[in-house]
Amino acid sequence: MTADVLTADLVEYVLRVGDDALVAAQRLGEWSARAPEMEEDIALSNIALDQLGVARAMLSYAGELEGAGRGEDDLAFLRDDREFRNCLLAELPNGDFAVTMARLLFLSTYQLSVYEELSRSGDDRLAGVAAKARKESAYHVDHAAQWTVRLGDGTPESHRRMQAAVDDLWPYTHELFASDGLVKRLADAGVGVDPAGLREGWLGAVSSVLDEATLNRPADGWAPGGGRDGLHTEHLSYLLTEMQVLHRGHPGATW
Questions:
Q1: Mind spelling out the 3-state secondary structure of 83-99?
Q2: Residue 42 CB coordination number (10 Å)
Q3: Are 167 and 177 in contact (CB under 8 A)?
Q4: pLDDT at 5
Q5: 141 contacts: CB under 8 Å, gap ≥ 6
Q6: Residue 38: predicted pLDDT
Q7: Which of the 8 DSSP states describes residue 68?
Q8: What's the CA angle centered on 19, arms 59 and 44, to 5 degrees?
Q9: What residues contact residue 75 under an 8 Å CB cut-off, 6+ apart?
Q10: Which of 103, 108, 153, 154 is nearest to 134 (CA)?
Q11: 14, 198, 207, 254: which has the fewest C-beta neighbours closer than 10 Å?
Q12: CA 219/CA 57 separation, integer angstroms
């Protein structure tokens, strides 16, 4: 693999990791002042800030690798939906609290696995960001797991809603582990992570939580995808409109 190919692959890969975190942060931020209790309001806001921290580090690095003069703000606020590389799971609407907790469980468990692998990357920049992020993700997983158990093994209504959330989001988890030539090349180079090898561990961790929560693990079937290639649901367009409106309305403005 030539250096140019490796750099181009790395830019795309870093955007995938960064966009997952950025879009997840925006969705979690929508709960600010709306969570069911004050402590949860603070907790979700802090998790959103953790995700935003990863997003900033990754988008900054992507801009440097790209060498086109774009910084983290340009990549966050001046790209259109077809240029984003996040998984579909991250962009889906929050729904009720059960949906948000199911998504946080699925996504953060996946992110933790990715960061653990990336902390051993041959790319020092990626390894450094991942080493810090995995500690934060471990908390995110624990937080989501506690709520999943609390709701799943709670009242009949909370159980019903938690099971419905798991059922509705499960199809979108398959995309997390989709492999392609890009991730395979980076994995072979000792730089990136091929997510296909993470699914078994993810299933074990998530299934353990679902069992404790008296929830059924859905059968695998329909598996929507396309996010890594810029093919998104309509929900991302609405999310980006809200997230980007200030920056686009005042281009070049600084604080």
A1: HCCCCHHHHCCCCCHHH
A2: 12
A3: no
A4: 65
A5: 105, 108, 109, 112, 205
A6: 86
A7: S
A8: 105
A9: 15, 18, 59, 62, 63
A10: 108
A11: 254
A12: 36
CA dihedral for 110, 183, 76, 225, sign (positive or negative): negative
Q: Which amino acid is at 62?
A: A
In this structure, the number of other CB atoms found within 10 A of the CB of residue 214 comes to 13
Please provide the distance, in angstroms rounded to a whole number, between the alpha carbons at the two ends of the chain: 42
For residue 25, give the nearest of 47, 1, 56 by alpha carbon: 47
Helices (H), the chain: 3-29, 38-66, 72-77, 88-91, 97-118, 124-152, 156-173, 181-188, 199-212, 234-249
pLDDT at 69: 95
Instruction: Locate 172 and state its tokens.
Output: 């979108």
Q: Which residue has the tokens 């250096």?
A: 3
Number of other CB atoms surrounding residue 1 within 10 Å: 10
Distance, CA of 14 to CA of 122 (rounded, Å): 14
Residue 183 neighbours by CB under 8 Å, 6+ apart? 13, 192, 193, 194, 195
Single-letter amino acid code for the residue at 111: Q
Tokens coding 186: 């980076």
Residue with tokens 């158990």: 149
Low-confidence ranges of the chain (pLDDT < 70): 1-2, 5, 255
Q: Which amino acid is at 219?
A: A
Q: Give me the residue spans of the domains in the chain.
A: 3-214+231-249
Q: Domain 3-214+231-249 falls in which CATH fold?
A: Ferritin (1.20.1260)
